[in-house]
Design a protein that fits this description.
The chain is an alpha/beta fold and about 290 residues long. It has one domain: Alpha-Beta Complex (Spore Coat Polysaccharide Biosynthesis Protein SpsA, Chain A). It is about 45% helix and about 15% strand. The chain has an eight-stranded mixed sheet with strand order 3-2-1-4-7-6-8-5, sandwiched between helices. α9 packs parallel to α10. The chain is globular. The two termini are about 30 Å apart.
Length: about 290
């Protein structure tokens, strides 16, 4: 791989993504890289997502299934040695990013190159706060060797994804944890890329709330243990550790966006606790170990 750059297949699930998709695809097209393709798996969008996709994609697929099913369908259609599984709100910051990003794959034990994510400079306070918190939490998990990381918005060796059986199509949100957990159990390693991607997500409190509800509904069925964390671990992250981040962010980093974090934490904990309690009462919970896979 060090002598010849491998072909890279960008696989992007979409659903009503017109606000961010074109900027995302333009940033891919501008890459100074000899061979790559773009595969988009759309969930039958009703906005202009499909029209945008048709202008940039090498292949456009439609699926009404889960997020994980869209990922798996896209991966199966790729022809590249490396799969870049990105959300439709990921922006590559400069034209040489991809050339640098694939270098860790020279190590045969590496299955995944996981870039850090940051909000663009013109993002809302909600988006900046969310991206900052998520990044610090994931780095904390890596340092403490807890949980799993690198399931999406990352680059993968396709043969490694196939080796672990791919994504579980029954899982909606949480499919990234599933694939990362399978790769880790197989002995593969994750390389953390310090050169970040831009993530234009959670731009408003309304969007944040909507995505928390979707995540909670999915995890209420598959179980939080899919993350490789205990409930105690998660509560620690969202209480003591988040308080530490807020104080360091405001007083040491002089970043006022951290004042938003207590509100985001409160929303997340409220949504997850209410949806989990409702699911438990209805007996809807299905452990992920019981899934049949693909």
């Amino acid at each position: 791989m060090s002598n010849n750059l491998p072909e890279v297949s960008f696989c992007i699930p979409t659903l009503n993504s017109e606000k961010t998709l074109e900027e995302s695809l333009k940033s891919i097209k501008m890459q100074n890289y000899p061979s790559f393709e773009i595969i988009i798996v759309d969930g039958y969008s009703i906005d202009s997502t499909v029209k945008i996709a048709q202008r940039y994609a090498d292949k456009l697929i439609f699926s009404r299934g889960t997020y994980s099913e869209a990922c798996q369908l896209g991966v199966e259609e790729t022809k590249g040695e490396i799969v870049a599984l990105f959300d439709s709100d990921i922006i590559i910051p400069h034209k040489n990013w991809l050339r640098n990003a694939i270098k860790p794959f020279n190590n045969p034990d590496i299955s995944t190159v996981w870039p850090l994510l940051q909000a663009p400079t013109d993002s809302s306070i909600v988006s900046k706060c969310y991206n900052n918190f998520s990044g610090k939490i994931l780095i904390h998990r890596l340092k403490k060797r807890k949980g799993v990381v690198g399931g999406t918005n990352a680059l993968f060796k396709k043969k490694c994804l196939m080796d672990v059986g791919g994504f579980n199509k029954q899982i909606d949100w949480g499919g990234d944890f599933y694939i990362a957990k399978r790769l880790k159990e197989k002995g593969y390693e994750v390389a953390v890329l310090s050169k970040p991607l831009h993530h234009k997500t959670m731009t408003t409190l309304t969007e944040f709330l909507k995505k928390q509800k979707r995540g909670a509904r999915s995890f209420s069925k598959v179980g939080l243990e899919l993350t490789g964390l205990t409930l105690k671990d998660m509560l620690y992250e969202h209480t003591a550790l988040s308080i530490k981040f807020v104080f360091n962010g405001i007083f040491s980093e002089k970043d006022i966006t951290w004042v938003c974090l207590p509100f985001l934490i409160a929303i997340r904990l409220t949504v997850y606790s209410s949806i989990f309690w409702s699911a438990r009462i209805k007996g809807e919970r299905v452990r992920h170990e019981g899934f049949t896979g693909n």
